[in-house]
Amino acid sequence: MSSVLLLSTAVSSVSLALSRVDSGPFVEGTSESSFPSPLFSLHSAGPKGDNIYEWRSTILGPPGSVYEGGVFFLDITFSSDYPFKPPKVTFRTRIYHCNINSQGVICLDILKDNWSPALTISKVLLSICSLLTDCNPADPLVGSIATQYLTNRAEHDRIARQWTKRYAT
User: Fold this and answer.
1) Catalytic residue IDs
2) Which domains does the chain possess?
3) Most CB within 10 Å of its CB: which of 15, 43, 69, 105?
4) pLDDT tens series, the chain, 169 aa
5) InterPro entries, from UniProt (predicted)?
6) CB atoms < 10 A from the CB of 90, how many?
7) SS3 for 79-111, per residue?
8) 47 three-class SS
9) Residue 39's CB: how many other CB atoms inside 10 A?
């Protein structure tokens, strides 16, 4: 009996999680819901095979950024507590960024303390795209890159473009 209850709870959690994923190009729940999100085409996500708790995502480097032209792959892992706990999102593609470390861990407030069950995967990916355009050197995971960003922006941008070309194209 308890295994049936656990399975029922898991199915309910997964159904709720899947219903919360944005499935179209429109941002839901806003007054601009009839307009496509300007960065929507820069990201996609979906399950890896049959495992609905493990997803793969692709983010295109935002135009005009040092990551432009890059294709970045991310892993998204959902816990059984989703959407009440944030998913774990990590970069699989190497990237030169002060808020993303060499293991692909992302320093982004909505993936930690500022998580809300109202956030969808599409909104999380949009926030990551925004982080690629505007890093947060005040809260870095890689202090040396943040320092370089603040003190020698031209060199930072040169290296970031070089890494994008080497690892993300």
Assistant:
1) 107
2) 2-21+37-167 (3.10.110.10)
3) 43
4) 433 333 334 434 444 444 444 443 333 333 333 344 454 458 999 999 999 999 999 999 999 999 999 999 999 999 999 999 999 999 999 999 999 999 999 999 999 999 999 999 999 999 999 999 999 999 999 999 999 999 999 999 999 999 999 999 9
5) UBC (IPR000608), UBQ-conjugating_AS (IPR023313), UBQ-conjugating_enzyme/RWD (IPR016135)
6) 16
7) CCCCCCCCCEEEECCCCCECCECCCCEECCHHH
8) strand
9) 20
